[in-house]
Write a structure and sequence with these properties.
This protein is 24% helix and 32% strand. α3 links the parallel β4 and β5 (111-116). The protein has a single domain, classed as 60s Ribosomal Protein L30, Chain: A, CATH 3.30.1330. It is globular, with a radius of gyration of 15 Å. It is α+β, with helices and mostly antiparallel strands.
């Protein structure tokens, strides 16, 4: 297979309150060492526990920790992130989210797109962050 997939899961286990049956993963390492990180939210990857319910700063820090951990598993680091997409559920969350995220990306300068969305998968989630990175040669 051309791509390597990290932390594979099926939505039956991840989202037991739905009837979905999809095979997904949290990170794909594409041929040529490009990394695509699935949107990360305020959950602990190992347990699926939501953290910081209603608190955009806590959820952002958890999402960034998840991104950092996933990148390390694929032999990369936050400083190799090229692009991020940030989804928030309320314009009022913009400053706390970008403040928290900015501490993780200090000196990195990724391209960023920010969107305000009506909602995320679970109502307690208020921010989701996707990332595209590379593995340095």
């Amino acid at each position: 297979m051309t791509h390597q997939r990290y932390r594979k899961f099926n939505t039956r286990e991840t989202y037991p309150d739905s009837d979905l049956n999809n095979d997904l993963c949290n990170l794909v390492k594409a041929k040529g060492d490009i990394l695509f990180v699935r949107g990360q939210v305020g959950i602990v990857l190992e347990t699926g526990e939501s953290v910081g319910v209603g608190d955009p700063k806590i959820q952002t820090n958890q999402a960034m920790q998840n991104i950092s951990d996933l990148l390390q598993e694929a032999d990369s680091k936050l400083e190799h992130v090229c692009r991020i997409q940030v989804y928030i559920t309320d314009r009022a969350y913009r400053d706390p989210v970008y403040d928290a995220m900015g501490k993780w990306f200090k000196g990195v300068f990724p391209c960023a797109t920010g969107l305000i969305v009506q909602g995320l998968w679970r109502p307690e989630w208020v921010v989701e962050i996707e990332a595209t990175a590379v593995i340095p040669s």
